[in-house]
Amino acid sequence: MIPCTKTGCHRWFRNKSGLTQHVNVYHPVLPSVNISVPVEQCQESSAGEEHSQVLPDGYGDSGNPLDDPSNSNPLAEYVGPGDRYYRNYHPNLTGRPCDSLGNFLPAGHPAEPLTDMRPDDWSPYSSRLEFELADFLFTRSQMSAANINELLNLWNASLLSTGGQPIFRDSSEMYKTIDSMPLGDVQWEKFSTSYTGERPTENVPPWMNDTYDIWFRSPKEVIRNMLSRPDFLDAIDYRLFREYESATDSRQWEDFMSGDWAWKQADTISRDPATHGSTFVPIILGSDKTMVSVATGQNDYYPLYLSIGNIRNKVHHAHRNGVILIAFLAIPHSESSRHLFHSSLAYILHDLMPGMTEPIVMRFGDGHYRRVIFGLGPYIADYEEQVLLACIVRGWCVKCLAMRQALDTDALYRSREHAEALIEEFDLKNLRDEYGIIGDIIPFTSGFPHADIYELIAPDILHQIIKGTFKDHLVEWVESYLKAMHGTAKANAIFDDIDRRIAAVAPFTGLRRFPEGRHFKQWTGNDSKALMKVYLPAIEGHVPVEIVRTFRALLEFTYLIRRNVITEETLVTIEDAINHFHKHREIFRESGTVQTFSLLRQHAMKHYPDLIRLFGAPNGLCTSITELKHIDAVKDPYRQTNRNKPLGQMLIINQRLDKLAASRRDFSRRGMLEGSCLTATMQLFSTRDGRAHSNTSEAPGSNRCNEDTDEAVDCPTSIEAHVELARTPQTKRARTVTELTAELNLQHLPTILEEFLLQQLDTYDNCDSDLPEWPTYGNKITVVNAAAALFYAPSDISGIGGMRREYICSCHSWQNGAPQYDCAFVNTDSGLKGMYGLDIVRILAFFSFVSQSKRYPCAVVRWFDRVGDKPDTDTGMWIVRPAFTAQRRPSIGIIHVDTLYRAAHLIPLYATRPVSRNLKLHHSYDSFTAFYINKFIDHHAFSLLSDSY
What we know:
Number of strands: 32
Radius of gyration: 31 Å
Helix content: 25-40%
Structural class: alpha+beta
Largest sheet: 9 strands, mixed
Shape: globular
Number of helices: 26
Strand content: 15-25%
């Protein structure tokens, strides 16, 4: 037995690993801090002053909030339109407003104004122009100091002749102005750490003597800034809840605060009555090494990011800076990495510790103060990070106790209590061999209350499913299978045809092109996501149906778990997809392509239903979020440095970016950034001159939509879908019905147009067919190249309200390139779900015309017919083919754009037909006779088409 040597401790342990566990948890030694250095001045200074009000014992004057009749926080309420859903709220952690001292306020008490600054106060900038210029040069253009100086010299020279004043004299003045903004200011600090454990008597490894510097920002102050952001006002949850459908009482999961983990944490925390009425703030962390350059000496960085569980998933989809860089960890490349990693995290997060047991007061974006209680929440990481976090041997599952040789079997979940018991009982070798536990390293979470690292490992859709199971497993297995079945020569011919099929897929907004098929030197996550959208039809006919169904099951699983709302019914469908995947993948083992399914990334699929119940929809916790943050926080700032000791420059750049973003939020909240800078300046001058404003409301070139790509749109969720024509008329295309008839080679177009008008005027069915009262219209028309579809797609990249815009193209030369005539969904019966109430058309032309003083925006379309009354049983996709009249002519019509829903993507039904090497992607819709409606083109299309069966 081994005793604990700490003064006053009388514990004994069977082995050294148990003693190590005990010492790290109950007698932790944090690394020493050398200095705190504000980055701007690079001079010594102390850490920022403590601003949090630590509450006294009890509630002060307000008493228990549940016993207070003035408490207006209901424990249940209806949410959403038509009372379709209701929520049950946690009874104790109720997010009740209080004053700055923590005393609860009576119901209806108004919040204090967030600022007393005037709506024309641009401090520290002198004007809107000065702020917009600084933001443009530093944030959007990311211009170097030398180029900024050159631009300002040219600009200021142009002002000399008119007597104007320079905006900034040089880049230094601009930087100084940005740095003087107090908003968003959380300074960088540094601490140094080194190995403090036992050392060998001789041949001491170098890493034991090294000292490592870690730069970080106070996570508490970062959280304070996040909670106070007014732009999060409608995108933050103050209370934990469970949400149900009113009609069926079926539960559903969406944002993080709807999950069971947060509710269970609240149950545990609220055992202390002093926490009642507080707001629970879960801390979400993520880390991942990233490379910024292969041509310089130091090219790896180890950023640590922070978010909070109160922020809804739509903030992450809208890329609204809901994830913040808080540290750069050290990369020792040695055996010390595990010790250094956990000790660094423990120190960085230590200022949150008091707020995990006693509420502190923080101000929120609605202006109210609230008591806040912190808790360590999920950690976003890929597998390499997960084994480091959980102190697990590589090759073992970090979530359960399944043996690494038999990962395709079921096993119990890991837990902190179980691991601690094992560490006290077994020696280090048995821990590694039998349980996959590294017993002499203690997770950083062990020193924090209610934190179980095994439970907190978040799902990783990107690496486990998209890049792992899909690309690295199934796509590679198909190649191995074809070689085994057909030999190398014939398999290569099949691969070439698959590549031609992929390259020939018709263009679609936002779809990544594969002109050479699948041949990449390095696959990115976006490459794998793009291939998922088009791969299934490309292999059909070349592989057995069991392989097709394996891919279908995996694709459906992937799209289901990425829905923004997951219901109990969805969970059943997810589990069915897992079962189908396990069933159909057996063909790879039976054919000898693989020997075992004991594969970590496929094994992870079975944990997703439970993780969804714990943490809500997984698309708010995916590593895609942190990998995207690498661009803004690491890679772009690195490119702005001079490569000489770049880390210090990157810290300054990140701090300035935060200040500019905070300034933009503040100015927007005060209504100071409406319109463009030019229109605001024109209006200011016209006001001074006494002129009217009507002609200055829109500057030249303003309000012109970008028709190049799809985009997230920040607007209220007031409609499900809306389509309108582009605003730019095409002067080189037809200007009359006669010219459009010739352009489209449709001699009966005037007749179709008259029939369309009769339908619009609601006279077609009521008039005498022999003597119809034909409406009149002018010959003049306006043709455009595209229409913009705005629709609710919260599972895709979208605005803060879940709205997304895409462009439906119809022109003979798109962006000076090949012709593009897109397909679209048309609403034909709003009373039916999915494809039963929709049809597919191909847009031949968008145009508008005037009849009897009313303008009609419409489209000339070619109709498609559905093949069968349900999707294909193998691929799960609907099949359509071009429609023909009784005279075997293409079925052509004119429809109002209001009947269009959104763009549709079709992929040819290749069957066993080889694709010509000369086939171009813009000829795809003209070269085949049957097509799949691609439900995997995006998540909105998947949900729309999955509602049909």
